[in-house]
Please model this.
Amino acid sequence: MANETRAHIGLITGDLITRAGDPLDTCLRHLARLKVDAPVLGCLGNHEVYARSEEYTTKEAARIGIRFLRRESQILRFGNSRINFAGVDYQQRDRPYLVGAENLLVPQTLNVLLSHNPDVFPIAAQKAMI
Model:
């Protein structure tokens, strides 16, 4: 169904699995079937953190063409326009949110934050992340 939308951009915001031992590779194989004009980008959720699968998920996803942005950004160009996607891992509640994330901003560009937990967006707005 997702491919029927003929989307330009594919974004994933985490929780590919629930716990360690879940079929992560199967999930990634299904996500690799997404057909979009630009690269598929994403960020990791709390379940990847809890399952301690962040490195594996990032590496295996990159192998099949999906890039998880972990305190990284990537500019996508569409004609003369560009969008900077800044991704962060799940922001844990017992720590300050988005420390240093303002360094992912690109001036004179539309910046979009990819974050699993939406409660970070007020902080992002203060940092001019959205």
User: Anything to note?
Assistant: Residues 7 and 129 are 24 Å apart (CA to CA).
